[in-house]
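A quick word before the example. In earlier lectures we treated sequence and structure as two separate objects. From today on, think of them as two lines of the same record. Here is 4-hydroxy-tetrahydrodipicolinate synthase written that way.
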Amino acid sequence: MDVEIVSPVVASVTPFGESGRVDHGALADFLALSASAGVRSMLVGGTTGEFPSLTVGERRTLLERSRASWAGTVIAHVGATAVEDVVALADHAREYADAVAVVAPYYFADATGVEAFFRQVLQRVSMPVWLYNFPRHTGNVISGAVLERLAAEFPQLVGVKESGKDRDVTAAMTALRPRLSVYLGDDGAGARVRALGVDGVVSGAGGPVAELPVAIARAVARDDLPRADAAQAIFDRYSAFRREIPLSDIAFAKAAVATRLPGFPVAVRAPLTAADAQQRRSIDTFLRERILDELPTL
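And the structure line, produced from the sequence above:
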């Protein structure tokens, strides 16, 4: 099952209007900004897209509207704690997405339960599937052994998004390449993907300045490591500032998008907290003074 996924994959935000509903016009604007930055692959409805705060109906509509505005590859995140919800979302995604991603179940489950959950999903989902490892949020790790057993049994399992920090787990995943593609959810890894033995990166908080991870990936593809390192240094500066602000990556990303797209809604759904006026000013000033003038041009 071949799916053309080009690094970096950008994880889309989900904008909310004053009514609290998804603002699909703002979503289209964000996707247009991403396309103009050179992004070719988009993850819809993932962590950055606030999937736990969306209803199943909202997730379906979000994917439909994203597909209508995005000409590139779409990976639809369909993860949930209920297998039936995962399968229902994946069935819907067949018409709108090129692949689906499924996060590990959270709240319950040990390693045996995680494997059983994915096996039940894969028995019923035939389109290309990425598994999504994010133990900081799920409390569960997708081990290399579990991944290897599932990959041997289900040919539609084509990759994994690795957002964990345990590089021993990452190494166990990369040992399965090229049978599986491995993408890191790590904005600091773009210039080092070859050294790490992975296929690319997925960026959430970096979406507002996607020109940077795009430039890094293109330079790596050309073996132009000095240019990759130069763009990575700017991206690292952005990421360091992001970590200094006491905000979730999601709230920061929306505030940063509002600098690129004036009027873009910065609201997030509870239990997340949006950037306040002072934080928005700080983010806007930093981007204008330290980042935007250094963005690579296509």
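Notice the following. The radius of gyration is 18 Å. We will return to this example when we discuss secondary structure assignment.
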